[in-house]
Specification:
By secondary structure, this protein is an alpha/beta fold. 21% of the residues lie in helices and 28% in strands. The chain has helices at residues 49-56, 154-157, 161-173, 190-201, 215-220, 233-236, 254-259, 282-286, 302-311, 328-335, and strands at 8-14, 23-29, 37-47, 82-83, 89-95, 107-110, 113-116, 119-125, 137-141, 145-147, 181-184, 205-210, 225-228, 242-246, 261-269, 291-294, 319-324, 343-347. Strands 3, 5, 6, 9, 10, 17 and 18 form a 7-stranded mixed β-sheet that branches. Helix 10 (328-335) links the parallel strand 17 (319-324) and strand 18 (343-347).
Length: 355
């Protein structure tokens, strides 16, 4: 029999834009369940760039000085205080009265990107636009909790939602197919390592870019060729241009990524960890019929497809480390460590009804 749901829970509350001092471990009320919602007990919550970028104000249109605790984010939807956490593996423990056949006591993955059915280019992100998984419980619309039958651990499943959804969405938007040659920059991180596996799953040939210490790990994920970070891409790929480049690094190297595409090739991006402002020669774009795709919101089928890949063991998790929920600062430091390959996951303590 399921344990009674407590009135309060432990959560990491982000109080505004700024540094790690903005992360406070607090006792807060367990969120109320709406008519069409489910209450999920969080078993594991992945750490990713979206959480850190939201906290530091990276998505803001203007400069960040840490003084404005009002609406933030590129579309002004993020408000503080906020429980962050875009990646959730949990178990459904309660459902609203309007939910038909709720998956009570089922393990679920929560879709991070909740697309507006009336506008496919707008979405509500778990942990940025609504309270997320850095807590013992989270409430989400019932449509966003996907039951998953897998032998993977809770922590392994928590590596999937945000990073893998982002990677699969980019490959879908770029229409990557069997036989395509795909360049993946930042191939050792959460999104990059997912992209390597998902591109290989589609039958593509993968050229990955990663620091030398990570080459063996990236090859083990399926990369056909691994180039060292900082390599002159124009020289290394002069005779073997790529069909698609998946680039979430950007920064000063973005122009070189564009140049190694075949005529008619595509760069697809959903991030810019090396810098959001780039320089490129537009002649390399239009004279070669190349395309640049920006992606944020996910195609409706992406997350269900991912759950299927997991259940059929067509991909494997890349878990770097786990930390207790209360050690979120250490976890985010580990996430940003240069030697990391794969994902970092937080594990909330499980408490009884007296919590």
């Amino acid at each position: 029999m399921a344990s009674p749901i407590p009135e309060h829970m432990t959560a990491v509350v982000t109080t505004g834009t700024g540094g790690p001092e903005r992360l406070q471990v607090r006792r807060v009320p367990v969120p109320e369940v709406g008519d069409h919602d489910v209450l999920v007990r969080v078993l594991a919550a992945g750490v990713n760039n979206t959480d850190i970028n939201t906290r530091v104000g990276w998505y803001d249109r203007g400069p960040v000085d840490g003084s404005d605790d009002g609406p933030t984010g590129y579309n002004g939807a993020t408000r503080f205080p906020l429980v962050q956490g875009a990646d959730c593996c949990g178990v459904v423990v309660a459902a609203g009265r309007g939910v038909v056949d709720p998956p009570i006591d089922r393990r679920v993955l929560v879709r991070s990107c909740m697309t507006d059915p009336d506008d496919p280019h707008r979405a509500e992100w778990l942990g940025s636009d609504r309270d997320g998984a850095f807590a013992q419980y989270v409430v989400v619309p019932a449509t966003e909790a996907f039951p998953v039958d897998s032998a993977w651990s809770d922590a392994e499943l928590a590596t999937i939602p945000c990073s893998w959804g982002t990677a699969e969405n980019m490959l879908r938007r770029a229409d990557v197919r069997a036989g395509d040659r795909v360049l993946v920059t930042g191939a050792s991180g959460g999104v990059g390592s997912a992209t390597v596996q998902l591109a290989r799953r589609r039958g593509a040939q993968v050229v990955a870019v990663a620091s030398r210490s990570k080459h063996d790990a990236v090859r083990a994920l399926g990369a056909d060729r691994v180039l060292e970070r900082g390599t002159n891409l124009r020289g290394a790929l002069a005779d073997t241009p790529v069909d698609v480049a998946v680039d979430n690094v950007a920064g000063p190297g973005f122009g070189a990524v564009l140049d190694v595409l075949r005529p008619g090739g595509t760069v697809v991006t959903s991030g810019a960890i090396a810098g959001a402002v780039v320089e490129l020669d537009l002649r390399s774009l239009y004279l070669q019929d190349r395309s640049v795709l920006g992606t944020t919101t996910w195609h409706p089928d992406v997350f269900a497809d991912l759950v299927g890949y997991v259940e059929r063991d067509e991909v494997r998790p890349v878990l770097a480390d786990t930390f207790p929920l209360e050690e979120i600062v250490r976890a985010q430091e580990a996430f940003r460590h240069a030697d990391r390959v794969g994902s970092v996951v937080l594990l909330p303590r499980q408490e009884g009804p007296a919590a």
